[in-house]
Amino acid sequence: QVSLVESGGELVQAGDSLRLSCAVSGRPYTAYIMGWFRQVPGKEREFVAAIIGRSSATDYADAVKGRFTISGDAVTNTVDLQMNSLNPEDTAVYYCAATTIVFFSSKPDDWYLWGQGTQVTVSS
User: Fold this and answer.
1) 22: burial class by Cβ within 10 Å (0-12, 13-18, 19+)?
2) In contact, 20 and 70? CB cutoff 8 Å
3) 39 pLDDT exceeds 90?
4) Distance between CA 30 and CA 41 in Å, rounded?
């Protein structure tokens, strides 16, 4: 059984950096397209970034392009999200997700494995 466990969320100041990690167990992350989404109360879950496990090709939402970087580590079987120049609009619960259905879909329904989420709060 495959599971995803996020870690690294915390309270930071605007302009700070933070690194989230998604530990994949049960199967190599390279078997999937891995992604990060985020959600704030009252809003739909929003696509942030994705990586094709086998090729390391990446995709990013416009809101984070140039500030966030997604990467995978086959040794530790983790997928990280490096977040720089954080601002209060980045405050959300961040979720790790996996799929084999489509490449780089921004639709949460196309992703069928989810972690429990980790809270990121950016204060101004």
Assistant:
1) buried
2) no
3) yes
4) 31
